[in-house]
Structure formats: C-alpha cells, structure tokens
Specification:
Blueprint: H1 4-14, H2 16-20, H3 26-46, E1 58-69, E2 81-85, E3 101-107, E4 113-116, E5 118-119, H4 122-130, E6 139-143, E7 146-149, E8 156-161, H5 169-172, H6 185-189, H7 204-219
Parallel strand pairs: 5-6
Antiparallel strand pairs: 1-2, 1-8, 2-7, 3-4, 3-8, 6-7
Helix pairs in contact: 1-3, 1-7, 3-7
Length: 242
C-alpha cells in the first residue's frame, strides 16, 4: 500500500504547475487526496463493494466503555443503563444506507476480539425495549459522536470503520491498560505523510486525477480536461492570488 508521501509526489508529478508551486503544500494535497478517496469509496460501498477488504478500514483495537443511563442519548424515560465510549469517535463516513463501519466487536477477558455486535438505530432499540421479549443480542448505535452499546456490562469494544478524520494516537493507543495497544516509538512519532494511505488499487488513478484537477482549478485559472493518461495539455492563465 502506498504512503501519503508517495501519492502526494504522484500528484505533483502529473503537472509542472503543481510540482513547482510552493503555495500548494503537501498537507493541502494530502487533504484533497483524502476527500476524493472518501467520495469514490462511498460510491463503491453504496454499490455493495469493498466491504470485505482488509486494507480500507481503520481498526481502533480498543475503546473503553462506561455505564450511562439510556436517557443520555434519547428521550426515552426508563431506569435501564447502557454503555458508552469514554472518548468521542473520529468522524465516520456515511453512505446511502449506513455508517461505513465494517464491524464492532466486544473485547473478551483475554483482550481478544469477542462477539460481533449488531448495528441498530436508537429508535429501533427503544421499540425493542417496549416488546415483552428477552433481548439476547448486543446492539450498538452512534449519537453525537459517541458509540453506545446495549450491554451495560461491556467494558471495551473494537471497531473497524472508514474515518474521515485522522485517528489520533490518544484514541488508537489509549493509556488505560485496555487491550494490547502499546505502540512502538516509531509508530507513536511517525510523520503522517509516511503512514500508509487506505486506497484500493483500482481507484488510485481516479483519485490522483480528481485531486490534480481540483488543485489546478483552485490555485490556477486552468480549465482542466484530463486525458486517459491524466495529463492536461491546456495552457494556464495567470495564477490566482499571486
């Protein structure tokens, strides 16, 4: 899998304007790469593709939970309690049908992955509570950036999802003894540009072309019409804001 730095370099190499312009930072290019990747991945997942890949979704190995009253996340009046992540989640992408979450699992006593939880909306869960049945399944839902779990005794969960925001070291490697999450010094201090970029290979060319096109339109007065090779032969007008 290519690093962010490699893809940024590939974008710059597509056009001389981008390779020589100091105002277009690596951070700006990386941000545009991510935006276009999320756009195309949403298109694919809406078509029921990519859900089984092990390279697209980021796994947070351990998120600690705490008990809270169910009234914290809804207007339902009841004495029952549920569990909620102590930390807010980074923003998760949403498709046409659901959050782009590959899975949420409980963490067993040995720190390993336990049972997979079922996704549900809070309204559907409230309807279940009103039914005279025994609730054997464990469910999860997201409200205001927190993940809630129907089992109030659950201590921690593992989640694999497509995050639109960077997962910070504090979230990825919690300092609470939660699972085996200790990073190496290299992982903790790694430059974001040197991290692997979650992008399916067959989408890479499209992402690079979309990124280059958007940057040219943003920083230069260029009407972009990319060829199959991702090359724009049109001459630019005067740069913007120079």
């Amino acid at each position: 899998m290519a690093t962010v730095r490699k893809l940024v370099s590939d974008v710059r190499a597509m056009h001389k304007l981008l390779s020589t312009d100091a105002l277009i930072t690596d951070r700006a290019i990386a941000s545009e790469l991510k935006n276009n990747t999320i756009l195309l991945v949403k298109r694919e997942t809406n078509l029921r593709r990519l859900w089984s890949t092990d390279t697209l979704f980021t796994t947070i190995p351990c998120l600690e939970l705490e008990q809270v009253p169910i009234t914290e996340c809804c207007d339902f009046v009841d004495d029952c309690t549920i569990a909620r992540t102590k930390l807010k989640l980074p923003r998760i992408s949403e498709g046409n049908y659901q959050y782009l979450i590959q899975g949420v699992w409980s963490i067993n006593a040995m720190g390993g992955m336990g049972k997979k939880l079922k996704e549900i909306t809070i309204n559907r869960y409230i309807n279940l509570l009103k039914l005279p049945i025994i609730k054997k399944e464990s469910y999860y839902w997201i409200v205001n950036g927190y993940l809630y779990v129907s089992d109030p005794l659950l201590k921690a969960i593992r989640i694999a999802a497509l995050f639109e925001e960077d997962v910070t070291n504090e979230v990825m490697y919690p300092d609470n003894g939660c699972g085996d999450c200790k990073p190496t010094d290299e992982e903790w201090c790694k430059n974001p540009l040197d991290k692997e970029f979650a992008l399916p290979g067959y989408l890479e060319k499209q992402v690079l072309e979309l990124t280059s096109k958007k940057l040219l339109e943003t920083y230069f007065e260029v009407d972009t019409d990319l060829t199959d090779d991702g090359i724009d032969g049109q001459a630019p007008n005067s740069p913007k804001n120079r």
